[in-house]
UniProtKB/TrEMBL annotation:
Name of this chain's protein: Phage protein
Amino acid sequence: MINQIVVRIAAERIMNGGLNPKTNQVYVIEDVTNEDYRVAVEDYILANTEGI
């Protein structure tokens, strides 16, 4: 089961250039290693990005 709060937090960090707390570098989609969460984060980004 995917936690939508975790998805939103990860997606917002990726979209806003936030830091990955694990690596202390800019959060990128490749940092999401769980395939189900990666798909959910990608879907969230697509749904919440204007012009796509």
